[in-house]
Amino acid sequence: MSQQRYAYLIGANGPEQMALRYAESDALRLAEALIGPFCKFTEAKAAIAESRDAGLAGLQELARRCDPSDTLLVHFSGHAIFDRRLYLLSNTTDCDNLYVTAIDIRTVKDIMSDCRAQSKLLILDCCHAKGAYEEALKGEEDIHEIVRQTAQGSTLAILSACARKDGTREFRELDGGSGFLSWAIRTACRHNFAEIPFDLDHRHALSLSDLERWIRKALDYVNATMNVHPPLPIPYLLRDQTVGHEILLTPQLASERRPSPAKDEENQRKYLEQVFRSYSSVALPIGLSEGLSLHAIFQPLALRSDPLTAEDLERRQRRKLLGEHPQEGGGAHHPERPSVEQQGNNLKEKRLTESIIAEHGEDALSRSPQGRVVILGGPGTGKTTTLKYLVSRRAYQALEKTQDPSTALLPIFLSLADLARSGKTLQSYLVDVVEGMKVEKSFAAVLWTAIERGKAFVSLDSLDEVPPAQRSQMIALVNSLAADPGNVWLVGSRFTDYKSGQLKAGQFAAWELLSMTPELRRELAEKLFPELRRLLLSEANGRSSPSDFVNLLEHHPQAAPWGDNPLLFSLAAAVYVKTGGLPLSRAVLYQQVIEAVLTLKEPDSVARKHLLRALTGLALWLYEQKKGRTFTLHELLTYLEDIRDHSWEEAERIAKKITTSGVLDIVARETYGFRHQTFQEYLAAAELAHMLMGHDEKRRENALALAWRKRIYSRWTEMLCLMVGVLANEHGKAGIRTARQWLQQLAGQYTQPEGDPGNLGLALMLKSAREITLLDGEPGQATAIRALERDMITLWLQDVLETAGSDHEAREKRLRDLTADIALLHPTTVAWTVEQLVQLLRDEKPVVGWTAIETLGFLGDAVPLDPLITILFAGSWSMKMAALRSLKALKRLPPLEQCAELINDDD
User: Fold this and answer.
1) Residue 640 Cα distances to 606, 649, 673, angstroms
2) Quick count: other Cβ atoms within 10 Å of Cβ 195?
3) pLDDT bracket for residue 258 (50, 70, 90)
4) Label partner for 378 (CA 20 to 30 A): which of 27, 81, 406, 531?
5) Predicted pLDDT at 907
6) Is 265-314+345-513 the same fold as 5-239?
7) What is the pLDDT of residue 338?
8) Count of H helices and E strands in the chain?
9) Of the candidates 24, 22, 29, 54, which has an alpha carbon nearest to the alpha carbon of residue 44?
10) Nearest to 437 by CA among 377, 487, 405, 395
11) Cα 556 to Cα 185: distance, rounded to the nearest angstrom
12) In which band, very low, low, confident or very high, does the pLDDT at 299 lie, cut at 50, 70 and 90?
């Protein structure tokens, strides 16, 4: 059945006392444009809303006529009032009785939801238009999820003239009188781009994405040429992205010219060359905008079956973590806990099943028969590097023709976070991808065809950076596309933000990036040092060698774990080359690196401090708004003008300083992003610390309330840990005191009725304490810090022992994993912790002793060998096995013959 396109256009100038002049004519003239020679709609019916019923009279009838292949466009121009929901005003609406006399937007939404049309577009040219999807919402980003639910399997888009708090205006100068949005759409549908040039001609169909680009161009033109003050607000386009096809306002034109096969081949060659050139090397976030380009260092990966996370939900909303029982803490009967021997055997079996290791990303992909892979890792572990390398390798193979052309896959790399931010379908967003590669945009159709035919190799980065309200939409899109055979799909995400089962387990294999090996550290250092010395010029420390740096790092009490992480390792190398030493904490590391980056762009120290304050404020604002590390120029100006109250001239000047600071990358036209997510986290932490140390008591209270409210959200963990480091290292003795008070407040959760669900507060305390453990501060400060650390360890031991006697293996694992953070505390605190665990070896309960043995294996050189050797002589079989595992983890196993002799008993 051929596609039909229908439109229903409602116009109302509104009640007499507030009547508009052009709303009704806007509806009538848009109807004429839609049935005109360019758009050729099957039917476009204009209705003047003299009353509520008159406005809706024909909408339901038209919607019912739509077949599944059709398109339905609904438009309203007129007044609107937002009162808990959006009401569209008819000419006879009583503003004191909206419920009865106005058009409730829910009615329009319900009719569109019931319509069978494949594509639906709702256009609202009225004040408060974005309120159409803000009933009882906590945040504007939730609109995307509601749009998806309303779509019910079709493509639904909502084009709103302004935000809920904004108003629209009419202009006599626009086509003899019109509202801006209606005029812009009408102009596009008439194909009248003479006054404002636009790259669309009669040979091409007009898509919704084309319309959005045209509206933004027309908006800039109107604001500039008509001196509109205040400027007209930017219209919002929201759509369900889980359905990939585009909404067209014109027929799929038969005369639309396709490039010749020779031109397609030339575009493909150029595209592949650009992909290979862009993604075959690693650009580190150090130095000038081009960064440091290095060939990728390949890391091993481990196959994961069930990644565990603490979810970004309030405690009362969280589902139980895997391994926990619904009745936890409720006194209900639990299955009998396995014996110590059974636990030992279960743990051994679990480790065997989890020991599938791939040498690098290519190996992991070859071990994933479905061709569906999730690459997991923490901040800076190399997720993006792995995805880009795999894409660049496919581009190289295609260029060199090392694969059979019939089986070769076209490589595509894109950011899921940027796709979500754009509001576009994947099909439309591919135009941005192609244009970003400086290839003719017509080649986007080739990429989309490759996806449809199962001939694409698609890498989707930054799932964890998608705003929470849009994440389910992006996941649904990936699951839908990956269900079709043929393509290879790769997804990158932080481990702590990936929930098991989000991407269909039957399709996707989850691989976690492992730590760099000593050999990889040395290889990376050899590549880094020449580039760093070239970049830092006369400031470089030329006497030290890469091996000196690696040795210092591996034996540093705090910095040693940075050697596991490519980003932290690289940043530490930059600081080392510049200063000849290593900082005491991650917060100091980021502070020194960002200071070096800003100095390259802004040598004046006073101007540099002002720029840094602008960046820290922006980073925290974006964090609170859940916008991720990517933002548009409009959002930047909104922050500077509306939040910071800068004048237009000041905002323009500061925006230029920020966008050229070296801390940001250009993502797309008028779109920017922090060069790494950890940079944004550090800057946001610095702003929060500044607020806590400020003189404004109200701001201090707000900052403390914000930190306390966000302590249970996993995506805030890194930032709050860095906040402690900034307080302690950049705000002197008073900052150390404030950091200590914050940690004591976290510890105080244990005395409250709700306790510390999920041990989130305990984990945050221990991770944060690493940032201050080597500081002394004022007299007595070190003693106070040591006492605070012991209080934390006491709480941790209490939870470990409580869990050892229950049936919560997942919680037990989380608590044992915290020993990695404990091992990085002050040596005296670690030694005290070891003493407590050694005492537990003699506990009369075998499960307590077994837990203590297992835990000791994570605490390094502070663990004495004698107690473990004694267990090898006299313990039960399971205790001997636990002691052997701990000795192996400590890398202090006795000779093999002695081990055999010690464990050879009558068991």
Assistant:
1) 20, 11, 17
2) 10
3) low
4) 531
5) 44
6) yes
7) 44
8) 36, 23
9) 29
10) 395
11) 63
12) confident
Global pTM reads 0.64
- The tokens describing 744, both together, are 């004591």
Closest C-alpha to 495, from 557, 561, 589, 565: 565
C-alpha pair distances (Å), 905 with each of 344, 738, 881: 18, 56, 13
Nearest Cα to Cα of residue 183 among 195, 194, 170: 170
Whether residue 613 has pLDDT greater than 50 = yes
Cβ count near 656 (within 10 Å): 10
Q: What is the CATH number of domain 265-314+345-513?
A: 3.40.50.300
Q: Is the pLDDT score of 891 beyond 70?
A: yes
Give residue for tokens 């081009």: 290
Q: What are phi and psi of 333, to 5 degrees?
A: -70, 135
What backbone torsions phi and psi does residue 383 show, to the nearest 5 degrees?
A: -60, -50
Q: Say if residues 464 and 494 touch (Cβ distance below 8 Å).
A: yes
Predicted confidence (pLDDT) per residue in 500-519, tens digit: 557 775 678 889 888 888 88
* pLDDT at position 657: 93
Can you tell me the distance from the alpha carbon of 313 to that of 317, in angstroms, rounded to the nearest whole number? 6
- Domain locations in the chain as residue ranges: 5-239, 265-314+345-513, 522-578, 829-907
Q: Which two tokens stand for residue 561?
A: 């774990």
Per-residue pLDDT at 60 exceeds 80: yes
Domain 829-907 falls in which CATH fold?
Answer: Leucine-rich Repeat Variant (1.25.10)
Cα-based angle 503, 508, 513 (whole degrees, multiple of 5): 100
- The residues with which 294 forms a beta bridge, in sequence order, are 282
Dump pLDDT digits (tens) for 411-466.
999 999 888 887 778 888 888 889 888 888 889 889 988 998 999 999 999 888 88
Phi first, then psi: what are they for 840, rounded to 5°? Answer: -70, -15
CATH class assigned to 5-239: alpha beta
Beta partners for residue 77, in sequence order: 11, 125
271: pLDDT strictly greater than 90: yes
